[in-house]
Design a protein that fits this description.
heterotrimer; A alpha+beta; B alpha/beta; C mainly alpha; A: alpha+beta; Rossmann fold; OB fold (Dihydrolipoamide Acetyltransferase, E2P); 2 domains; six-stranded mixed beta sheet; elongated; B: alpha/beta; D-Maltodextrin-Binding Protein, domain 2; 12 helices; globular; binds adenosine-5'-triphosphate; binds magnesium ion
C-alpha cells in the first residue's frame, strides 16, 4: 500500500457527553493529489470532520496523520493547511492583495517573494487586475476565488473547502466547479471538499466519501459510488434508483472486476439476470436499477421483460420520466425525448434492462421469518 | 436695556406645556387665583431648607401650627440652599406660587431689593413686637426668625478638648483631614473673613493676606465640597476637622453620640441668620401673616431651639439651660466677625472666583 | 411613416401622464413620511431646539450679581471665559478628563465586550444583562458607593492598610483620581453596549481563517480582532468622552470641590451664583467642544471604514 497523504483513524467527535457522536469512528485514507468530496445530507458530520482535520476543533478520540506525521493535537496555525470557508471569511479591513498575502506574512516570507506569489495566486484565479480592490466591492464569485487564492498561495499541505459553492447562484456554481477542479489539478493540492450536492461531488472528486449519521457509508471513486453503491442509502442519495427485492437463485458466470452474474427471482415478476459481488447465492438482496437504465417499450420485446401500465409521464425537456405500474410496484424509468412515439398514461409498457445494469447490494435483506 | 428675571423662563416653559397639553385641564393651575384663603384657613406655600432642617422645623413648628390652625394646609417646598430659593422666587415673580420664604439674611436682602417680598404689617403680626430692633429689618421687610453661627467641627476622639483657635486648621498634624466648604457657601465666605481678620486685614478692602494664608491651608484640605455633608465627613472619620454650622453641628453631635463636637474658636465667628419673609403678591397673604406670627411666637422659637439649636430672635423665648448653652449667644458674649449683607452680595462672586483660581489646589 | 408620426405624440402623452402619476404618488408618499415625522420633530423642537435656542440667546445677555439678568446683546459672556486663562485651564481639564476616562473605560470594557460578543454560551443574554445591570441604579447612588469605597477609611484604604502595604491612607477621593475611577465604572455599561453593537464585522470565522493561515493567537488579535473591533472601540470612546465631559454629578460628588470642569462650573454659575448668561455661554462652549470631537470621530470612522 502506498503511503497516503492523509489518514484519518477512528476519528470521533462528541459535542457533549450524552449526545450521539457527530462523527463516529471515521476512517479514511486520502492519496496525494486527490480531491476527496465529503458528501452527505445536512447534519451528517461533514463540517465537523473538516474542522477536526483543519485543527479548528479537537477530536474526542482518534487520530489524524498527514505525511506520516500525527497532527491530531497540532494547533491550527502550525498545520499549514489552507481553508476556504462557506462564507469565504475574507478580512473586510484588508484589500484583495493584503488578504492573499496574509498567510505569507504569517510565514515571514520576504516582501519580494510575497509580491511574486500573491501576483501568481491572483493570476491563477484570474483576478490579478483586482489586487487593490476592497473586499466588500467584490462579487460573490470573485470573493470565492480570492478565498481560494488566499488558501492556495501558502502551498498548503491540504486544501480544505467547506461548501465553497453553496453561496453562489446555479450558473456561477458550474463555472467555479470547473475552475476549482482545474486549479486543484494544476497545483496538485490534496483537497478535502465538503458538499451536499451529489452532482458537484461526482463531477469534481477523485474519491467520494458518502457520509450518513457520522459514519462513512461508502468511500470510492465517483463511478464506484454511482454504479456500485454499497448500501441503499448511497444508492438513494446519489442519483435515483429503483429497488426490487430479489432472491438470488444461482450464479451464471463471472463478470468483469471480479463480479458475478446471477439469476434472480423477483416476487410476482419472474426471473431475471443481475450482477453482484460473489457469493450471494441463496439469500435475498436488493436489486438496484437506475431509472435511465430501465428500458421502456410499448411492444413486448424479448423474454425477460416486465409487463406493466404507464401510470404517469413527466416531460422535463431533456428527458421523459415514466412511472410504470407492474403488479403492486411502481418503477421509475427515464428515456430520451427524441425516441419517436411518446408513451401516454394508460398505455401498456414493457420494461427490460441489461444484466450488468441491475446491481445486487452486497448486504442481504433480512428475510421475514418464513 | 431691560432688566428681566427668570420669570421669562417659567413663562416660556408654561407656554410650551400649554402648547403640548392644549386643554387647560392640567391640574393645579389655580394657585395664581388665590384669594380664597383667610387668616385661619386655606393653603400656605412655604419655601425653606431641606434635609434635617426641614424634618426638625416640621416637627417643632409646622405640626403644632397645623394643630392650632387645622384649616390651613401647608405645602413645603424644600431647597438645598437660599440661592436656590431665590432662583425659584425669581422664576415665579410674575405669578407667585409661594407665600412664605425662610432663607438666609443675605439672600433675603437681595430679594427685598429685587421687590420679591412684602413689608410685614405689625398689626397682622403681633409677635413682631417681641423681636428686638436689631433683628428687625430696617425697611420693614421680613425679620430675623432664628440665628446661628459658623462653628468649627472636630472629631472628639482626636480632640478630647475642643480646639480653641482657628489656627488648628493650619496644623500640619491634621493635613489631609480637614473639610472646608469653599465659597459661594457661607461657610467658605465666613472663613475668608475670619482669616482676614486674624491677619489684621480689613476684608472689605482687601483679602490678599487671607488668600496667602488660605493657600497654605489648601493642600491639607481633604475636600472643598464635603459629601454627603460637612458633618458626616467628620463623623465617619473621613476628616477630623471641618467648617460647619453650630446648630446642625450640635444636632449631629447628639445623633453621633458625641463622636463629633462643634465649637466657636476665640478669634470669633460669623452669624448665619435666617429671616422669615412674605412673598409680594402672595396668593395666600392672610395665612402667610398668620404663619409668620406663629413662627415668631415664643412657643415656636423655643421648640425649634430645642430641636435644632437655632437661637431665638425674640426676647420672650425662655430656653432651658442645657439648650441655652448650645445655641449661638445673641447677648454680645460671642466675638462676632461682622459680614455685612450688602458687602457680601458684592463680594460673593469675587471671593468665589478667588478661591477657585488661587486657593483650591488640584 | 404617418402611423408612427401620429402615434408618437400619443405615446409621449401617455408617458407624460404616467410620469405625472408617479410624481403624485411619490408626493403622497413623501407627505405620509412627513406626517409621520411630525411627532418626533415636534418633540425634538420642544425638548431640544427650543431650549437650545433659548440657551444660546441667554448666553448673549448680561448677568448682574444676585441673579439679575440684563436682556441685551453682548459678547462679554464669551470674551470673559475665552480671555481668561482660568477657563482655558478648566476647558483643558475637562477635555483631559474626557480623554482619560474614555481611554480607561475602553480599556477595561473591551475585554468584557469582546468576551460577551464572542460568547456562544446559552447564558450570553443573561451575561450581557448582568454587564449592563448597573444602569438600573442611578449614577448618584453609584457615586456614593465609590465615596464609601475610596474614602480615607474606605474599603481600598483599609484593605491596603490591613495588608500592611500603606501607612497613611491614599487620597483616592475628593480629587481627579476619584472622579476618574468613578466615571470609568459608571460609564462601563455604556461602553460595553456601544462596543458590542460596533463589533458587527467581527466573526469567529475570520479569526479561524487567520489561524488556519498560520496566525498565532496574538497575531489573530492584533491583525484581525483588534482592527475589526476598532469602530466599536471608537464609538464607545466617543460616547464615554461625551458623557464624561457633560456629567456633573460625579465630578461634583467625588471631586470634593477640587475638580473644576465645565459641567461643575456651569452648575456653580447656575445655582450658586445665579449667573445664567455666563452659564449659558459656558454651555455653548461645551457644545462646541462636542461638535469638534464628533467631527474628528467622523473623520476617523471614515478612515477605518466602520
Ligand atoms: N457546536 C455544536 N454543538 C453541538 N452539536 C453540534 C455542534 N456543531 C454541530 N453539531 C451537531 O453535529 C452534527 C454534525 O454537524 P456538522 O456541522 O458537522 O454537519 P454537516 O454535515 O456539516 O451539515 P451541513 O450540511 O448542514 O453543514 C449535527 O447533528 C449538528 O447538529
Ligand atoms: Mg456544514
Amino acid at each position: 500500500m502506498t503511503e497516503s497523504k492523509l489518514s484519518i483513524v477512528d476519528l470521533t467527535k462528541r459535542y457533549a457527553a450524552g449526545l450521539d457522536p457527530a462523527v463516529d469512528r471515521l476512517n479514511m485514507e486520502v492519496e496525494e493529489g486527490h480531491l476527496v468530496a465529503l458528501l452527505g445530507p445536512s447534519g451528517c458530520g461533514k463540517t465537523t470532520t473538516l474542522r477536526m482535520v483543519a485543527g479548528l476543533m479537537d477530536p474526542t478520540a482518534g487520530s489524524i496523520v498527514v505525511d506520516g506525521k500525527e497532527i491530531t493535537h497540532t494547533p491550527v496555525n502550525k498545520r499549514g493547511m489552507g481553508m476556504v470557508f462557506q462564507s469565504y471569511a475574507l478580512f473586510p479591513h484588508m484589500n484583495v492583495e493584503q488578504n492573499v498575502a496574509f498567510g505569507l506574512q504569517m510565514r515571514q516570507t520576504s516582501k519580494s517573494e510575497q509580491k511574486r506569489r500573491v501576483a501568481g495566486a491572483l493570476d491563477m484565479v484570474q483576478l490579478g487586475h483586482l489586487s487593490k480592490r476592497q473586499v466588500k466591492d467584490l462579487s460573490g464569485g470573485q470573493q470565492q476565488r480570492i478565498a481560494l487564492a488566499r488558501a492556495l498561495v501558502v502551498e498548503p499541505t491540504l486544501l480544505l473547502l467547506d461548501e465553497p459553492l453553496s453561496n453562489l447562484d446555479a450558473k456561477l456554481r458550474e463555472t467555479m466547479r470547473t475552475e476549482i477542479r482545474s486549479i486543484q489539478q494544476r497545483t496538485r493540492a490534496t483537497t478535502l471538499f465538503v458538499t451536499h450536492d451529489q452532482d458537484e461531488a461526482l463531477d469534481m472528486a477523485d474519491r467520494i466519501a458518502v457520509m450518513n449519521g457520522g459514519l462513512i457509508e461508502q468511500f470510492g471513486s465517483p463511478t464506484d459510488v454511482y454504479e456500485r453503491p454499497r448500501t441503499r442509502f448511497v444508492a438513494n442519495f446519489i442519483g435515483q434508483a429503483n429497488f426490487l427485492n430479489a432472491r438470488v437463485l444461482s450464479e451464471t458466470g463471472s463478470a468483469a472486476k471480479g463480479e458475478t452474474h446471477y439469476r434472480v427471482s423477483i416476487d410476482g415478476l419472474g426471473q431475471f439476470g443481475a450482477v453482484g459481488a460473489p457469493g450471494l447465492t441463496g439469500s435475498t438482496h436488493e436489486l438496484v436499477i437506475r431509472p435511465h437504465r430501465l428500458r421502456v417499450s410499448l411492444q413486448p420485446a424479448g423474454t425477460e421483460t416486465i409487463a406493466g401500465v404507464i401510470e404517469r409521464v413527466n416531460y422535463t425537456g431533456d428527458a421523459l420520466s415514466v412511472a410504470v405500474k407492474a403488479g403492486d410496484r411502481v418503477l421509475q424509468s427515464q428515456m430520451p425525448t427524441s425516441s419517436g412515439d411518446l408513451p401516454r398514461t394508460g398505455d401498456a409498457a414493457y420494461l427490460s434492462w441489461n444484466e450488468q445494469d441491475a446491481y445486487l447490494l452486497p448486504t442481504p435483506v433480512k428475510e421475514p421469518a418464513a | 436695556m431691560r432688566v428681566i428675571t427668570k420669570g421669562k423662563i417659567a413663562l416660556a416653559a408654561a407656554a410650551t406645556a400649554a402648547a403640548l397639553v392644549l386643554t387647560g385641564c392640567g391640574g393645579s393651575a389655580g394657585s395664581s387665583s388665590g384669594g380664597n384663603s383667610s387668616a385661619t384657613s386655606g393653603e400656605l406655600n412655604l419655601i425653606a431648607y431641606s434635609g434635617v432642617w426641614q424634618d426638625q422645623y416640621t416637627a417643632a413648628v409646622i405640626e403644632p401650627f397645623k394643630a392650632k390652625y387645622p384649616d390651613i394646609k401647608i405645602n413645603y417646598s424644600s431647597k438645598r440652599s437660599s440661592a436656590e430659593m431665590l432662583s425659584a422666587l425669581q422664576g415665579q415673580k410674575n405669578n407667585p406660587a409661594t407665600d412664605v420664604a425662610i432663607m438666609d439674611n443675605s439672600v433675603s436682602t437681595t430679594g427685598n431689593t429685587q421687590g420679591l417680598f412684602d413689608k410685614i404689617d405689625p398689626a397682622a403680626v403681633p409677635n413682631l413686637a417681641n423681636v428686638p430692633e436689631q433683628f428687625k429689618n430696617k425697611g420693614g421687610f421680613g425679620p430675623v426668625v432664628m440665628l446661628d453661627a459658623v462653628g468649627l467641627l472636630y472629631d472628639t476622639a482626636t480632640f478630647p478638648k475642643a480646639p480653641e483657635s482657628w489656627d488648628v486648621l493650619w496644623d500640619p498634624a491634621y493635613a489631609g483631614k480637614i473639610n472646608v466648604n469653599a465659597p459661594p457657601s457661607l461657610l467658605g465666605l465666613s472663613l475668608t473673613a475670619i482669616t482676614s481678620k486674624m491677619e489684621g486685614e480689613d476684608y472689605t478692602k482687601s483679602i490678599d493676606k487671607a488668600v496667602a494664608r488660605l493657600k497654605e491651608m489648601a493642600p491639607g484640605v481633604q475636600t472643598f465640597a464635603p459629601n454627603p455633608d460637612e458633618y458626616q465627613n467628620v463623623i465617619t472619620g473621613q476628616t477630623v476637622l471641618g467648617l460647619g454650622q453650630n446648630a446642625r453641628g450640635q444636632f449631629y453631635s447628639d445623633q453621633s453620640n458625641k463622636k463629633m463636637g462643634v465649637t466657636f474658636p476665640k478669634e470669633g465667628t460669623v452669624y448665619q441668620i435666617n429671616t422669615v419673609n412674605v412673598v409680594k403678591d402672595a396668593p395666600n397673604k392672610a395665612a402667610a401673616q398668620t404663619f409668620v406670627d406663629y413662627a415668631l411666637s415664643a412657643e415656636a422659637q423655643t421648640a425649634f431651639a430645642k430641636a435644632l439649636f437655632y437661637a431665638p430672635s425674640v426676647t420672650n423665648a425662655d430656653l432651658p439651660a442645657d439648650v441655652k448653652d448650645r445655641v449661638v449667644p445673641t447677648d454680645g458674649s460671642l466675638n462676632i466677625v461682622p459680614l455685612d449683607v450688602e458687602f457680601l452680595s458684592s463680594a460673593r462672586d469675587k471671593w468665589t472666583d478667588t478661591w477657585k483660581r488661587q486657593i483650591i489646589t488640584k | 411613416m404617418t402611423v408612427t408620426q401620429t402615434e408618437a405624440p400619443a405615446a409621449r402623452r401617455a408617458g407624460a401622464a404616467e410620469g405625472e402619476l408617479e410624481k403624485s404618488t411619490g408626493r403622497r408618499n413623501r407627505r405620509t413620511y412627513l406626517a409621520l415625522l411630525i411627532p418626533g420633530v415636534l418633540g425634538l423642537v420642544v425638548s431640544f431646539v427650543f431650549p437650545l435656542a433659548y440657551m444660546v440667546r441667554m448666553s448673549f445677555n448680561k448677568g448682574a450679581p444676585d441673579g439679575v439678568i440684563e436682556e441685551t446683546f453682548t459678547l462679554d459672556t464669551y470674551i470673559q471665559p475665552l480671555t481668561d486663562p482660568y477657563y482655558w485651564r478648566v476647558t483643558l481639564d475637562t477635555f483631559q478628563m474626557g480623554v482619560t476616562v474614555g481611554l480607561l473605560c475602553v480599556l477595561v470594557s473591551y475585554p468584557v465586550a469582546l468576551f460577551l460578543a464572542r460568547s456562544t454560551s446559552k447564558y450570553r443574554g443573561l451575561l450581557i444583562a448582568v454587564a449592563i445591570a448597573p444602569l438600573l441604579t442611578s449614577a448618584v447612588v453609584r457615586t456614593y458607593g465609590w465615596m464609601v469605597i475610596l474614602g480615607t477609611n474606605g474599603l481600598v484604604n483599609s484593605t491596603l492598610d490591613g495588608m500592611g502595604l500603606i501607612d497613611t491612607p491614599l487620597k483616592l477621593t475628593n480629587n481627579m483620581t476619584g472622579v476618574t475611577i468613578g466615571l470609568v465604572e459608571i460609564f462601563m455599561p455604556y461602553a460595553i453596549l456601544a462596543m458590542i453593537s460596533g463589533f458587527g464585522r467581527l466573526s469567529p470565522q475570520l479569526e479561524e481563517a487567520a489561524g488556519s493561515l498560520g496566525a498565532s493567537k496574538l497575531q489573530i488579535f492584533t491583525r484581525v480582532t483588534l482592527p475589526l473591533s476598532l469602530p466599536g472601540i471608537l464609538t464607545a470612546f466617543l460616547l464615554v468622552f461625551v458623557l464624561s465631559i457633560s456629567t456633573f454629578i460625579t465630578p461634583r460628588l467625588l471631586g470634593g470641590g477640587s475638580v473644576q470642569v465645565l459641567a461643575t462650573e456651569i452648575y456653580d454659575q447656575t445655582t450658586g451664583l445665579l449667573n445664567w448668561p455666563f452659564a449659558a455661554a459656558l454651555s455653548v462652549i461645551l457644545l462646541v467642544l462636542f461638535g469638534l470631537i464628533i467631527a474628528v470621530y467622523q473623520r476617523l470612522t471614515k478612515k477605518i471604514g466602520g
